[in-house]
Amino acid sequence: MHLLGPIRHLTLLGTLFLGAPPALADSITVTDDDGREVRLENPAERIVSLAPHITEVLFAVGAGDRLVGVTEFSDFPPEAAALPRVGGYSRIDMERVVQVDPDLVIAWRSGNSGAQIEHLRDLGFTVYVSEPRSFEGVASSMRRMATLAGTAEPGDAAVQAFLDEIQALRGDYSAREPVRLFYQVWEQPLMTVNDNHLISEAIRLCGGVNVFGHLDRLVPRMDREAVLEADPEVIIGGGMGEDRPDWVLAWQQWADLTAVQRDNLFFIPPSLLQRHTPRIAEGTRLMCEALERARSRRAD
After folding, report:
1. Is 150 left (phi over 0), alpha (psi -120 to 50) or beta?
2. Which CATH number fits domain 4-159: 3.90.950.20, 1.10.260.40, 3.40.50.1980, 3.40.50.970?
3. In this model, does residue 114 exceed pLDDT 60?
4. pTM score, whole prediction
């Protein structure tokens, strides 16, 4: 496995000495979310995705048929379930990646180990790092992945449809009365997001105010007492699965919370808000509708 990188470099050197055609002039070059230049001589035909949201984006921009490896929990669209697994996003099976021999690996900065990303580069693989923090960031990631895969036309159509949906939601909800909310990402440990997270852009679009948006960490850990002290008007969360609102319903035992008193505990399937994909537009719509219900439950 460790010989792969040197072999790739020797092959490249041999090609240069033999007088290869001037492919660099027509090469595909994009800048990833780490600010690194990523260059391919031709559109990627064999792609490994190292996170479920990356898998989903590649399908959305018409490049799903280029995938030769994905991580666990890559379950959307349904076709993704049949693809070979190369480990989990936090623990990549390097031997499996080498076996599927991709010409492009797309990694997730927040989820994949930095050491493993560097190891992939050391092995000679071209790596693009994804980390969108905004709706425009999602759109930009979609464009760049489509460029790398040579699917610019379907990619542009998917980007435009996504941005049109976001713009329509912004027009409908962004000027509504503010609603203070707590968004729960995880249960044990209890985790939320700060204002730099993509989920917080969805919150702001809907006229919401993240009660923990001021915290320094992107995904802060906290104790339950901090939530009780903040006393949000609304609690929204995901859960262990797409149809398990257990974590949100657990707040019902604190009857003094404003969110409990007004029946403002809302579950949104985690894949619709916690994956950086065009489906976050659907998750944002559900959040906006939840906050509108909360406004209607205020005393006159």
Report:
1. left
2. 3.40.50.1980
3. yes
4. 0.84
